[in-house]
Amino acid sequence: MVFSLPSLWYIAPASAFLSLVLALIFFSKLTQCSEGTEKMAEIAGYVKEGAIAYLKRQYKAVGIVFAIIFTILFILSRMGLQGGLVPFLFLSGGLWSAVSGYLGMKTATNASARTAAACQSSLNEGLQVAFRGGAIMGLMVVGFGLLDISIWFFGLNFIYDNNLFNIAMPILRDLDISTWSSAVATNDLFHRFKLVDISNILLTYAMGASVMALFARVGGGIFTKAADVGADLVGKVEQNIPEDDPRNPATIADNVGDNVGDVAGMGADLFESYCGSILATTALGASLALSYQELSLYYVIGPMVVAGFGILFSILGIFLIRTKEGATQQQLLHSLLIGTSVSSLLIIACVGYLAYIGILTPGLFVCVTIGLLVGILIGQVTERYTSDTFKPTQLIAETAKEGPATAILSGISTGMKSTAFPVIAIVVGIMIAFKYAGGMLDVSFGIYGISFAAVGMLSTLGIQLATDAFGPIADNAGGNAEMSGLPKQVRERTDALDSLGNTTAATGKGFAIGSAALTALALMAAYLDSVKVWLVKLSSDGLLMVNGTYFNAQNFSVDVSGITAVHDPKTLSTAQLVDVFNVTVINPNFLCGIFIGAMVAFLFCSMTISAVGAAAAEMVNEVRRQFREFKGILDGSEKPDYAECVRISTDGALRSMIVPSFLAILTPIAVGLFLSIPGVLGLLTGALTCGFCLAITLNNAGGSWDNAKKYIEAGNLGGKGSDAHKAAVIGDTVGDPFKDTAGPSLNILIKLMTIVSIVFVGVVIQFG
Amino acid sequence: MVFSLPSLWYIAPASAFLSLVLALIFFSKLTQCSEGTEKMAEIAGYVKEGAIAYLKRQYKAVGIVFAIIFTILFILSRMGLQGGLVPFLFLSGGLWSAVSGYLGMKTATNASARTAAACQSSLNEGLQVAFRGGAIMGLMVVGFGLLDISIWFFGLNFIYDNNLFNIAMPILRDLDISTWSSAVATNDLFHRFKLVDISNILLTYAMGASVMALFARVGGGIFTKAADVGADLVGKVEQNIPEDDPRNPATIADNVGDNVGDVAGMGADLFESYCGSILATTALGASLALSYQELSLYYVIGPMVVAGFGILFSILGIFLIRTKEGATQQQLLHSLLIGTSVSSLLIIACVGYLAYIGILTPGLFVCVTIGLLVGILIGQVTERYTSDTFKPTQLIAETAKEGPATAILSGISTGMKSTAFPVIAIVVGIMIAFKYAGGMLDVSFGIYGISFAAVGMLSTLGIQLATDAFGPIADNAGGNAEMSGLPKQVRERTDALDSLGNTTAATGKGFAIGSAALTALALMAAYLDSVKVWLVKLSSDGLLMVNGTYFNAQNFSVDVSGITAVHDPKTLSTAQLVDVFNVTVINPNFLCGIFIGAMVAFLFCSMTISAVGAAAAEMVNEVRRQFREFKGILDGSEKPDYAECVRISTDGALRSMIVPSFLAILTPIAVGLFLSIPGVLGLLTGALTCGFCLAITLNNAGGSWDNAKKYIEAGNLGGKGSDAHKAAVIGDTVGDPFKDTAGPSLNILIKLMTIVSIVFVGVVIQFG
Questions:
Q1: Residue B546 reports pLDDT greater than 90
Q2: What is the ipTM of this complex?
């Protein structure tokens, strides 16, 4: 009997496809809107050109890295240390992440001038255009992500079921294909075994997405902040010209940066979290379904089903976001909140119903709910610490009166303090998800529940990302309005949208780090399952330990007796290997791994921060040079050389993204080879926990300095030009790389290191 | 047969006693030196008065905390949840730490004017006086520490051997004293069992020292930086008067701060590391000696013996530090290095000999050596990242040319980068110590080896602390010279000494954090042993698990059958309890604990940094008020109100040290009650690893800003008054609470949380 996927599974590819269709419709509607005056189109053109030029060069550089990793994976798969399709899955993950990023950014750059133009009519029309631009991004990320996963999942099942093993080269049983095929027709166990293999192979897709995300986040983060710092330090501080002034040579680079950093970077980040959480949960579910053969196979496909429904409800939510003409900003925010809340409530209700009719367990209903709650909570805390309507940011503005040093100190102190509630939220979420998913019975159920909570948190990503990507579009629209010399009223409207975007961006950032933490946890658990799979493959006896007892692979009508001779694996049995890799707390490799993991988080931040510093210094010199050499720029008689500034940011980003990226990719392998599996587990634990706190500190310190500055600029504490303002500007400049480069890049670091560990576990066991 | 301590053990109390005698001699020699002019004595008097007034108030506040904890421990001991002598050991640890701190500070304040006076004759005489002052501090810390431990160890053995159980109320066997006494005469095993009990009780001594250290570090750190920031921001920046100018109202407070922060704080910190590492190793050794009954009891007393020899060689090293008349600074440094190196080499040789004649194992020789090496290496890295003779600090000075924001960014980036080598050093040290101590055979041997490495690192603390405490004395001597209006040449000499002190201080700080990490690791392992002890006590069957098999306590001729009835303990057997507390990596309590541990490190820093900010703001206002209201201060016709500034720093320190201290004390207990033993283990792991990296980042960022400023002040990059200098001053101000409050306090946090976990493990098991 060929395993047939239950019909409910098709909700995943179907809604993903629908999502992409809708994105296309939105995009064609968007392009029908007017781009406004010729000047506006021209400026938007510069930004679009710069952004696309940057992305092309980035993809070229990343392409080389992908080619190298592909080659390594290919060789490994030939050596039997990786499944045969693994290199292609890796490419695929990177490719579709890049496509989403590219199209999302193209949309965003197209939307900005149109938003500014729509703002000429009314605030509401501006909102509609900007939000639609964001929605396209959201729909594409979830659409491409879930569709690819579904296609691969379906395809791999088809390949295995139809005995096309010379194509697939599965990890577990590549040596005795004949026996597999005889098992195909008879054994439910075979399907469970097969799903373990497939889901393990699929995790490489997440690695592709993760590597792409790292380059997008780090490169984009360096690009945007080098331009921002450069534009501010010379333009605003030295020459006293306003933000986004067309006379500032770095202003186009600054606007390009918003797109490559906040749109493409954030999109790739969440694309990776989205795919990673679904794939990790699938792998954990497959392992469970093999251990407990009475379990429904919905343990394996459940995450995809929930994600599918999540897309449907996200689409519904997006259509709900409509405002009456002349709505106040409060009403706008309210309208956005209705969209996201309805989506969230519907997915909770839906999972509740699936649990009620017995497709999912009631425990998983709790997990999805808690996942969504934790995401919302972390977002709320982020806002409370970074918005200038609350005490912490106002206090930073207060201390700015005493000078820059005290402003810096209070910002860092606020950032550090803001780690408390998110950690408590994550901890309580983990404990509840673990308990209700059945962790007391068997730890694996609990871990599966935690992983499912991540899927729940990200199930409504479609609409979450829409409200998030809308921010930079509004920001760019403001830039466009300023540079095109539109009336003050238009700039006020775009500013209102920008400010609305800042609120949703704060929530979005909390969401990104929260989901990264849960996804990394899920991936860590999947890593342990991967270790098991590879222990079976590389041990001398090919025994599988399930639930504490050992199964001979022959139990599954599969003969593995030939492995020893062909693969020259370890001479240890599975039992001995398990013992070697046994991890308790006082295992020194594990402890050392944690030390290294914490250190890598700090070192990685150091690299990204200093990269911004270096690129910004170059930018400052260039902008100063242009003002000095072309006297006509300041009075508007000469046009500054925008392209040169874009080039500096591009070069800085491309040059500096290599080393931190290799740090993230090579550390888990090196630690694996020196400190073995326990060391890797420590590394991942240390990087996750320390990186989480560090990321929140950097994000929130940066966010609160930014808003403290805006609070003073709004006329408080002496307003613009006061000493307090100068101190706040210094705080803001320090915060720029904190919140837009180092902090968000940490999200990826903690996920990528885990996924690299999974993909290279065979190498570590063989050579470690 | 009453257990008699081997004669070699007496080296510990003997050399500790010798050390104290020598300190007394040095002190009387010091007081014979001239205090210089009347003005100098007067100023030294102000500082001494302020420092002692502060310490008195601090001890009063801390006294209340000690009274509360004493009462709690007393009640617990009555409930059978703690040994009977435990509350007194706690008091004792705090008391002697306080005495060392008080006397050390009294010495330092006495030495400063005398150093300035001696500098009138020659640089060399100044060095002798300052170094002698530091030596007194070093000798007292190790002398009091080791002497107390020896006395308690001897006394407890005496009490147990002589059946005085109604005094001692041991943890393990308080219910059947009669059986104990019958065992006394017959059983070597009884001694081993007894030593487990004694060494567990003794760990409470370290808790007393640790609580005192926390208050000294946090309070002292807040005091000194509030004064420093206040003095600098108004005096140097606003009024343009030099450092240590007597017209600055905060200058006395600043000098007092150096004493209470750098001398008393650092002393209490290292007192705690010293005692903690010895006691933890003793406890681990006792546990090993029970598990492997063929092991020599030197496993238990070995750490004390090594510490005893360490003191002897430190004394020898101190006497070696002599310089020829007219020595250059390089020669002075060389002379200090000879002292420390000879001590280190001698202790290595000595342990080698002890291993050769079979008293210690060869593996422990490796451990001591590696411990010393790691300490030296971390110190070297610290210097490389913070001294202005190396690239990193010079680069920070370079970036200061672009403004304060880039200076801050490059400093933070440098601090983060500087975590790499210390972590690698610790990791390599752990792995080597683990391996050579026999960790492959039994993990417990490996952990014991790591712990012994900490003892090795701290064995020459006497001379290390001498070279360290010498810095603040020289710093204060400079202040005294400035305020007394001594000739420029004298100030130059004190500056030379100060700069020498800065080098040794950098090494000392690396030493402090390195030893804290290893000590915390040792204590964590001791915690696991404590858990075992309490499992025996509180389980229904009173079985002891040794080496994986269970022993009935009757094996040791001790009857524990009565425990159940009296103590109402759990109804679980030891086996069940061990299972409940079994900790693997995917245990969610453990993971959540790590998250909380990392967060607590950040939260703790946030609290201490903002405390400095608050107190400094008050100080700034007060200094401004004095300059405003008393016009005569600036022209020297009026004397500023020094006492008021001292009062503000004192109040700020006392007010703000309470909350972070309670965070450190209560978190392990709360986590234990909610997340049980695995949660606590996670907490300690997370706080240790993340706290270690955070502490190094803060220490080194602060240190490098400080020296970048000095580098510019030395005439580089535009010198004093340039824009680069202004930016560097802002960096330095940000760095002040980083390097002197938050960073060093983290040392204590990671140790204190571990020791609190040990002392309250009974409570956690009973009520958790």
A1: no
A2: 0.92
**φ and ψ at A545, to 5 degrees?**
-95, 115
Residues of chain A positioned with their CB less than 8 A from the CB of B599: 419-420, 423-424, 693
**Element spanning B549, H or E:** strand B549-552
Q: Is A402 in contact with B450 (Cβ distance < 8 A)? A: no
pLDDT of residue B467: 86
Q: Is B449 part of the contact surface with chain A (CB cutoff 8 Å)?
A: no
Dihedral, CA of residue B436, residue B439, residue B445 and residue B446, to nearest 10:
70
Question: Which A positions 285-314 lie with beta carbon below 8 A of chain B?
Answer: none
Nearest C-alpha neighbor of A521 from the set A417, A433, A421: A433
Nearest to A439 among B403, B588, B692 (CB): B588
Half-sphere exposure of A619 toward its Cβ, with a 13 Å CA cutoff?
A: 39
- When the pLDDT of each residue in chain B is averaged and rounded to a whole number, the result is 86
Tell the residue number behind the tokens 């990786």, with chain if given. Answer: A82
A552: β partners: A543
Q: How far is the alpha carbon of A411 from chain B, nearest alpha carbon, in Å?
A: 9
Coil, strand or helix: which one is A550? Answer: strand
- Find residues 595-624 of chain B whose CB sits inside 8 Å of chain A: 595-599, 601-603, 605-607, 609-610, 612-613, 616-617, 620
Instruction: Give the residue on B whose Cα is nearest the Cα of A410.
Output: B610
- Residue of chain A whose alpha carbon sits nearest to that of B615: A406
Q: pLDDT at residue B435 above 70?
A: yes
Task: Find out whether A277 and A519 touch, Cβ atoms under 8 Å.
Answer: yes
Q: What are A548-571's pLDDT values in tens digits?
A: 444 444 333 232 222 222 223 344
Q: Which two tokens stand for residue B114?
A: 């005398």
Q: For B606, which of A416, A434, A443 is closest by C-beta distance?
A: A416
Predicted confidence at residue A678, as pLDDT, reads: 85
- Alpha-helix runs per DSSP H in A437-571: 443-459, 461-483, 488-538, 563-567
User: Which member of B233, B424, B431 has the closest CB to residue A403?
Assistant: B233
Cα of A420 to nearest chain B Cα, Å? 6
> Mind listing the pLDDT tens digit for each residue in A262-276?
888 889 999 999 999
Pairing verdict, β B543-546 and A549-552: unpaired
Q: How far is B644 from chain A (nearest CA, A)?
A: 21
- Taking only residues 43 to 102 of chain A, the set having a beta carbon closer than 8 angstroms to any beta carbon of chain B reads none
Residue B301 tokens read as: 């007393």
pTM, whole model, 2 decimals? 0.93
Per-residue pLDDT of B332-375, as tens digits, reads 788 888 999 999 999 999 999 999 999 999 999 999 999 999 99
Q: How far is it, in rounded angstroms, from Cα A532 to Cα A545?
A: 8
pLDDT for B728 equals 94
Yes or no, beta carbons of A583 and B584 under 8 Å apart: yes
> Cα separation of A463 and A461, whole Å?
6
Summarize the confidence of residues A63-85 as an average pLDDT: 89
Token pair belonging to A425: 């939220």
Contact yes or no for A455/B634 (Cβ under 8 A): no
Q: How far is CA A489 from CA A125, A560, B653, in A?
A: 14, 74, 52
Q: Which residues contact B349 (CB under 8 A, 6 or more apart)?
A: none
**DSSP states along B399-420:** HHTT-HHHHHHHHHHHHHHTTH
Instruction: Tell me the chain B residues in contact with residue A689 when contact means C-beta distances shorter than 8 Å.
Output: 591, 594-595, 597-598, 686, 690
3-state secondary structure string, A298-335?
HHHHHHHHHHHHHHHHHHHHHHHCCCCCCCCHHHHHHH
Q: What are B451-504's pLDDT values in tens digits?
A: 999 999 999 999 999 988 888 898 889 888 988 888 888 888 888 888 788 777
Q: Per-residue pLDDT for A111 more than 60?
A: yes
